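## retry 2 of 3
previous attempt timed out at serialization; input unchanged, resubmitting
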Amino acid sequence: MPVAIITGASEGLGRALAEDLAEDGWRLVIDGRDADRLTLAADAIRNLGATVDAIVGDVNDEEHRADLVEAATESGHLDLVVDNASTLGPSPLPALATYPLASYEQVLRTNVVAPRALLQLTLPALTAAHGAIVDISSDAAVEGYEGWGGYGSSKAALDQLTRVLAAENPELHVYSFDPGDMRTRMHQDAFPGEDISDRPLPATVVPALRRLLSESPPSGRYRAVDLLVGKP
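## retry succeeded, writing output
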């Protein structure tokens, strides 16, 4: 039975991916900061017949990360880590000239430092299994959108760390995955008061991510829009 850690899986893309993997018999370790949302997600996954450990906590917390790894590796192997948990930062999105530095440091800790800290703990098990790492990226990592300097620069840093990780660990499949715009709570926070109902639901992006996992192309940065239309 393959085993995966998916952070930030109480809603959005993390939950949609977890439910999809559950239908294929994966054992899942998921987390989230909101206990009620995480419980709902875990119940939905269990209703699909899968085994899931749902651990409430913040990826910035060292003990929480250790708990995730302990739960995931109790069976002796780990096949996949999806670094999905992230934070947008202040809402409405501030310009860089007025961006609160304490908030920016928090964005970097959550979106860059925490995924790499989790990776350091999981790397031995992933290497033994010739597993895969997926860091969830964003088009804001490569485009200069007004107001997105904090979040975008954190995802750009994560992209670069992912590239270096792939170079240092050729036996692993290491991916940055850009899902594009989605109808999520985070995206709504980025556009407070605006109607985002035209954005696709996270479940529509999951087939692109599953293609990445099933076909195992070379490590690199991949966009959902390309995978969905057949371009590797």
